[in-house]
Every structure is written in structure tokens, then in C-alpha cells.
Design brief:
Blueprint lengths: L4 H7 L12 E8 L2 H8 L1 H8 L1 E8 L1 H14 L6 E4 L3 H7 L20 H6 L1 E2 L2 E2 L2 E6 L1 E6 H6 L10 H11 L7 E4 L9 H11 L16 H17 L9 H9 L3 E7 L3 H4 L11 E5 L13 E6 L7 H11 L2 H11 L10 H4 L2 H4 L4 H10 L23 H16 L5 H18 L3
Parallel strand pairs: 1-2, 1-3, 8-9
Antiparallel strand pairs: 3-11, 4-5, 6-11, 7-9, 7-10
Length: 433
């Protein structure tokens, strides 16, 4: 199945000009999420087909962002492939830091990539990263606990309903939290969640003159609502919980609801890993009736730094790992529910995948996310859970630390927002906005 023309051609790359056959080795930096861990388990098949060996550097999300950003900005050359997302790709592509992926093979079928994913991973019409999986965010909930509380989850809930349901499902005596949400510092961790949530409360990072808006009532309402709900119904220590921590809690049956990446659906419904696999339902991310839901748009994607000496071998791996055939490989071995979601149109046209219980809700969530129109009032930036400017990552990392300190009770919400306003204003002024 996997002996494709592109991979046959890639095999030739392993023959060095010295005349002796030696395996070429590429080094890949990636995040420690489940789908990426699964990919590593299939890498031997890629090596068998191409002769190209793969070394993995697997890192926690915040650490990964720091390592690859440092490497790309200093032309460090540690990696031949980097796992990055929709924030970094267009900025780095514009700067000439990434190898364009505009010459992928016909067999690869780049036109099959979902337009939302291709658009977010391109600059000026050129694809600079290929999506391994794409995601939005949605509500995952325990259907048994919801029924026991006498409630029914709407397909499109409001935040008020979510808070009511969270309180009703909380059972401290049995270690069940009504809701688990990210509070962990980091612009792509808790920062991503609270930013997406703030959109539905009418907040935004910057006004049309690039002034920070953390002194607004909308931001105050967002943080007060989040902290109030989590103090009432969330797990102890939620201020340090990110994606993986909440995934573990949900799989152990300790969360009534979890609002997070759609990609998590396959993990919480996998009976090999989840104690509640047979009682999970799905709904769109909540709103407040202001016209914006709190779902984000993201892809974990594979990109080639311009400084690599092994671009051809790296490109061969990217074609393999993000191909239709890789999806079929995972489906054949682990079932359609466990394939990388959200990247290819053909996956959602496949009747076998359409039967997966979370497939349609995932697609609906992705299609409803609009990075070009993410806030209630006009804003000058592209992005839902981030603002697509180079300065954002540094500012948002610092801001998220202040928010997490407020969640932990180390300062008030008002103090956190005042510090966030000062941090962002100083950084934006220094950057010349």
C-alpha cells in the first residue's frame, strides 16, 4: 500500500555520493500528544520503504514551542522537521525560515487538504507546513452524569448552561469535577483556551489601533466567569492543568465536562485508555449569544526549517506522515476512530469515517471557526486563540502567567488584568505599533 512513487524516489536519497549505501537520518521535533506518539510507532514502516532513519525529539507543548522557536530564529540546525502550527507557519514562511511545500507529488494530492487548514498553514498562497491533524475545540461530556443531573446537553450550549451543568455534576465526595478546563500558563495552553473563550464574551486582545484591551469589562467578565466556575466545579490545582492533564482526568472518570481540542475525542472514546469510553457525548463550544462561539482553529503540522541539509528526505517523510495512505494505515490497525482528524476533505467524505460518533461535530466545529472574523467587535489581527503577529507569543506567555496566578489565588483577577494590560502595552509600544 505504501510503496508509492514519491517514496520510491525518496529511497534514492539514501545513497550517498561516496558510492556506499548508508542510511540518511532526519531529526524531528514534535509534541507529546497522543497522535504524534502513535505516528512514532509506525515510523519503522517509513524507514523500511525509504531507507531514511528517523530520530525523534518529543517535548511537552510549551517546551517544544521554545525549542523550535529558538532553533529557527538562530538558524541552529538541530531539526530537519519541526512540529508547528497556524501561528508560526505564516510568520516564519514570510521570513524565509521554512522550505516551501509547493512541489509535493501528484500522488500526495495537496488539493485534498481542508481549505481551513491549508489557508492557515500558508503564506501568500504557498503552503509551508502540512497538517498532520487539524482541530477546533468542542464540549466533551459524560452522558451518564448529565442524565443523572436531569439535564440534556444542547448541540450548541451557552456558557450559562455549562456552568449550571458543571455545578450539577460535581460530586466532591466521589472525586468527580463538573468541568475540567485548561488553566496552565503558556500562550498555547491556558492562554489559548481563555482567549477563545473571551471572544464569546465580547473581548479581544487589541482594538483597531493595536491598543491592548485587558482593561475592558469584557475581559473582566471572562476571567471572573472562568475562575468562578472552576472554583465551584473544577479540579484542585486547575491553574496548572493543560491538555494532557485534563485528558488524563477525563479518562479516569473525574470530569463531567471537558472543553478542549476536538482531536481528544478519539482518546476519550477509546476503551483501551478511557474508563468512560461508552458514555461520552459531544457539543459545539459554548457561546453567550453575542454571535461568537468559543472554539478555536489549529493544526499541528510538519514543516522543514530552511537551514536543513536534508530537505528532500524531510519532504519524503512529510508526504508519508500526512498522506491519505497513512490515515488508511492507522485505520487498518487501530480503527477509523483513531486516525488523525481534521486535515483532509476525503476523510469526511468516507462513509466509514462518517460513522465515527464525533466526526461530524469535529467538522462542524472546524468549519464554524473563522480566524479572519473571530471577535464580536472589529479587531486588526487574524487568529482566534492567538493574534498572528510576531510579538504575540512573548506577550501572551507573560499574560497567561498572570492569569494562572489569579486562578491559583495568588492575586486577584483585577490585579492580573492590570498587569496584563501593562505587559501588553509596553511590548506593543516597544515593537512600534
Amino acid at each position: 500500500m505504501f510503496v508509492r512513487n514519491a517514496l520510491r524516489a525518496a529511497t534514492a536519497l539514501t545513497l550517498l555520493t561516496t558510492g556506499s549505501a548508508m542510511a540518511e537520518t532526519i531529526t524531528i521535533a514534535t509534541v507529546n500528544n497522543g497522535d504524534m506518539i502513535r505516528m512514532q510507532g509506525y515510523t519503522d514502516q517509513f524507514t523500511a520503504e525509504t531507507g531514511i532513519d528517523v530520530e525523534w525529539v518529543t517535548l511537552e507543548e510549551n517546551v517544544l514551542r521554545q525549542r523550535v522557536t529558538t532553533d529557527i530564529t538562530t538558524n541552529g540546525g538541530q531539526f530537519d522537521i519541526m512540529t508547528i502550527g497556524m501561528y508560526e507557519t505564516p510568520i516564519w514562511g514570510k521570513n524565509g525560515w521554512l522550505v516551501p511545500l509547493n512541489d509535493l507529488s501528484a500522488d500526495y494530492d495537496a488539493a485534498d487538504i481542508l481549505p481551513a487548514m491549508a489557508g492557515g498553514l500558508s503564506y501568500d498562497g504557498t503552503l509551508f507546513a502540512a497538517p498532520f491533524y487539524g482541530e477546533s475545540s468542542m464540549v466533551m461530556y459524560r452522558t451518564d452524569l448529565m442524565a443523572a443531573a436531569g439535564l440534556e446537553m444542547p448541540d450548541a450550549p451557552t456558557w450559562d448552561f455549562i456552568r449550571q451543568a458543571a455545578a450539577a455534576m460535581t460530586d466532591r465526595a466521589n472525586d468527580i469535577n463538573g468541568i475540567c478546563l485548561r488553566g496552565k500558563a503558556g500562550w498555547g495552553e491556558g492562554g489559548a483556551f481563555i482567549t477563545a473563550m473571551s471572544n464569546s464574551f465580547g473581548a479581544q486582545w487589541f482594538d483597531m489601533d493595536w491598543n491592548p484591551t485587558f482593561d475592558s469589562e469584557a475581559w473582566l467578565n471572562t476571567l471572573n466567569f472562568f475562575k468562578g466556575m472552576m472554583d465551584e466545579s473544577g479540579p484542585a490545582g486547575y491553574a496548572t492543568n493543560g491538555f494532557n492533564e485534563n485528558l488524563s482526568l477525563f479518562q479516569q472518570g473525574k470530569c463531567g465536562m471537558w472543553i478542549d481540542a476536538t482531536v481528544a475525542a478519539s482518546f476519550v472514546t477509546n476503551p483501551n485508555d478511557s474508563t468512560v469510553a461508552d458514555s461520552v457525548g459531544f457539543a459545539l463550544a459554548p457561546d453567550n449569544g453575542l454571535g461568537k462561539r468559543s472554539n478555536w482553529l489549529w493544526a499541528w503540522a510538519l514543516a522543514i526549517p530552511a537551514g536543513t541539509q536534508k530537505a528532500d528526505a524531510a519532504k519524503a517523510f512529510i508526504e508519508w506522515a500526512t498522506s491519505k495512505e497513512y490515515i488508511e494505515l492507522v485505520a487498518a490497525n487501530e480503527g477509523w476512530a483513531n486516525v488523525p482528524p481534521g486535515a483532509r476533505t476525503s476523510l469526511y467524505e468516507n462513509p466509514e469515517y462518517q460513522a465515527v460518533p464525533f466526526a461530524q461535530m469535529t467538522l462542524d466545529s472546524i468549519l464554524s471557526a473563522d480566524p479572519n472574523n473571530s471577535t464580536v467587535n472589529p479587531s486588526p489581527y487574524v487568529g482566534i486563540q492567538f493574534a498572528a503577529i510576531p510579538e504575540f507569543a512573548g506577550i501572551a506567555t507573560d499574560v497567561s502567567q498572570e492569569f494562572s496566578a489569579a486562578y491559583a489565588g495568588q492575586q486577584t483577577v483585577e490585579e492580573a488584568l492590570a498587569k496584563a494590560q501593562a505587559i501588553a502595552a509596553e511590548a506593543m509600544e516597544a515593537a512600534g505599533y
